[in-house]
Design brief:
alpha/beta; Rossmann fold; UDP-galactose 4-epimerase, domain 1; 2 domains; about 15% strand; binds NADP nicotinamide-adenine-dinucleotide phosphate
């Protein structure tokens, strides 16, 4: 029998992704959403949002209280909180009788050993997902859905993680620039969460793969040229293997936080581009876009929108 997942607790409804999850859940009359936010959080939420405050130290007993009576829990946590509290939140969802947990995954592929070897963030996410999977069957009615969405398109455009700089009109094209990879917009991730909760049977106890479109460095460059109205860009060519080595070195040895963040973003991109690592979910036959009836987006239109042109 299909469970009716109506009451949803969203932990981490602010930050980069959280507001889009909240917007989509609030826009769908099927759901009644409660945001769980830290006492010290300065995040603001839309008027009439139901908010429960928890201590900054994220105590399990508080979450047990908050999760009781909730049908679903969605986690979208910042990195240190994820490392420290994710397993406890999984346990609390099981013990409180929640029916569906959407864990704080929101990443690229985690199922390929080489991806986990190359990219420490993927290894860390895979560890979180292992624990979630381990809980399957531990309480009647509890289930999970993990979301793999590739790079956040909005973030990549806004922070130059694609190595395309619309101010200096300069770009790096990796290898021949033709490798396709899946990316997803924040809006589509939000919509996907509502569709997952509306299709609990089809999405139970597995990873769903979503994307707004499959693109390549060459396509992205054409989109940026069109969006900026500048046809001539300064293009540097890079080798994916070499780029991976350099990014790994920065992550392990740099003392500069911003350099490390940029290297993590680059590694996320390169792991999606590297041949054989399955960055194109549609070509790999993994895509759940049709099941979840997700819209397809146009790369140029989205780049223009995100660059405000
Ligand atoms: N695929 C990609 O390209 C990509 C890119 C970025 C992020 N992600 C993933 O998306 C998810 C959300 O990331 P995000 O960047 O949106 O997260 P974020 O902005 O860093 O934080 C999300 C929320 O975590 C809550 N939080 C709990 N403890 C916290 C603490 N000690 N310090 C700060 N915030 C704390 C906050 O909610 P309150 O303030 O309401 O308590 C915050 O708004 C993560 O799983 C991340 O790995 C994926």
């Amino acid at each position: 029998m299909t469970a009716n997942l109506r009451k949803v607790a969203l932990v981490g409804g602010s930050g980069q992704l959280g507001p889009y999850l909240l917007k989509a859940l609030q826009a769908d009359p099927a759901f009644e959403v409660t945001v769980v936010s830290r006492q010290s959080s300065t995040a603001s939420f839309p008027p009439n949002t139901s908010i429960v405050r928890v201590s900054d130290s994220y105590q399990k007993n508080e979450f047990l209280d908050v999760f009781k009576g909730q049908d679903a829990v969605v986690l979208s946590l910042n990195f240190p909180a994820e490392q420290q509290h994710h397993n406890m939140l999984v346990d609390a969802s099981v013990e409180a009788g929640v029916k569906r947990l959407i864990p704080s995954i929101w990443s690229g592929r985690l199922d390929i050993p080489e991806v986990r070897q190359i990219f420490p963030l993927a290894a860390s996410k895979a560890g979180l997902l292992e624990y979630v999977k381990f809980k399957e069957g531990s309480a009647p009615g509890w289930s999970y859905t993990a979301v793999v969405c590739g790079p956040f398109h909005d973030l990549c455009v806004r922070t130059n993680f694609y190595d395309m700089d619309p101010r200096s009109h300069s770009a790096t094209i990796w290898d021949d620039g033709n490798a396709k990879f899946s990316v997803t917009t924040h809006d589509t991730i939000g919509l996907a969460v509502t569709k997952i909760l509306r299709k609990p049977s089809e999405t139970a106890n597995r990873t769903v793969y979503i994307s707004s479109f499959e693109t390549s460095m060459n396509e992205l460059l054409a989109a940026y040229k069109s969006a900026t109205g500048v046809p001539e860009w300064k293009v540097t060519h890079g080798d994916v293997e070499q780029g991976i080595k350099e990014a790994q070195e920065v992550i392990t040895s740099s003392e500069n936080f911003m350099d490390r963040m940029q290297a993590i973003g680059r590694l996320g991109l390169l792991v999606g581009l590297k041949e054989g690592l399955g960055g194109d979910f549609v070509a790999e036959g993994l895509s759940d876009n049709e099941l979840l009836e997700l819209p397809r987006n146009d790369v140029t239109e989205t780049v223009m929108k995100l660059l405000n042109v």
